[in-house]
Amino acid sequence: MSTTESPELRKATPTIITHEGIAKNGCTWNVYNGDSRDVMKTLPSNHYDTIITSPPYFWLRDYGHENQIGLEDSVEGFVNNLCQTFDEVYRVMKPSGVFFMNIGDTYYSGKGESKGVDKKSSKRRFGLRAVDKSGGLGIGIKPKSLIGIPWRVTNEMMSRGWVLRSTIIWYRQHALPEAVRDRPRRSYEFIFMLTKHKDYYFNRAPLMEAAQEDMWTITARPKAQNLGTAPYPDELVERCINIGCPEGGKVLDPFLGSGTTARVGLTMNRNVSGIDISEEFCHYSVNQLRSI
């Protein structure tokens, strides 16, 4: 383990802690504890083959960190902070690289308090939302509206140079149902596939036997070891890697969470890197990677 400090870091996050190792299969792994916007500034350009991540959703989790993304007072602030991170993703990804982003939507309640509970994560229950208490989102929508976060983010990404190649529907089979009574319960999320250029690595073979190439029926994985996260399942990462990352390639997750991307990538003979602002999440991921 080594500790480095970047002069470009914001004052609230002056230190980046780096954990690294080599698995028995010869592949390398790195886990960086720090703000992903700052950590990636220290990483080389055009380096990673595949980026797989699920960024923080807008006002759905509170991880207790000053610089966390997701609790901004406006939709525009959230989209801008997330896309600033993805600007760095764009830089560090190879020209032939592929970016898979899993992101969910948020409802504007108008009152700030959810009528239900989230059994997947205790970090969901943070009461009155500042963005709602302030009197509205300022984007011309009425209370109880779905905000359209995934499309607001991807539209902004395209304005910054990204190519949106596909929208994949992940049907979250056997997921815990939402506690709602006045609309259909959601059973799917988006996986957005983005690239830097029109030419990139893509292995279509793993999808050819599927009934629908752009709708993935994958069982939702239960909560990870009391970390308070809602991780995506191993199979989702496996599919992204199989179609978007060459054998022996490099995978990055800028919002590592409980470490699913890095752990699965390492077992699939890829070199992996992950970044998370949470020291707890990083230690959990490091222990997993050291055991492979």
Task: Characterize the structure shown.
- The protein is α/β, with parallel strands linked by helices.
- 23% of the residues lie in helices and 24% in strands.
- It contains 7 helices and 12 strands.
- The chain has helices spanning 36-39, 75-92, 130-133, 149-159, 234-244, 260-267, 279-290, and strands at residues 2-4, 16-22, 28-33, 48-53, 93-103, 107-108, 145-146, 163-173, 188-195, 215-219, 250-253, 271-276.
- A 10-stranded mixed beta sheet has the order 1-2-3-12-11-4-5-9-8-10. It has a two-stranded antiparallel ribbon with strand order 6-7.
- Strand 4, helix 2 and strand 5 (93-103) form a beta-alpha-beta unit.
- Helix 2 packs across helix 4 and helix 5 (234-244) crosses helix 6 (260-267).
- The protein is globular and about 55 Å long.
- The chain starts with a strand and ends with a helix.
Q: What's a concise summary of this model?
A:
With 292 residues, the chain is of the alpha/beta class. The chain has helices at 36-39, 75-92, 130-133, 149-159, 234-244, 260-267, 279-290, and strands at residues 2-4, 16-22, 28-33, 48-53, 93-103, 107-108, 145-146, 163-173, 188-195, 215-219, 250-253, 271-276.
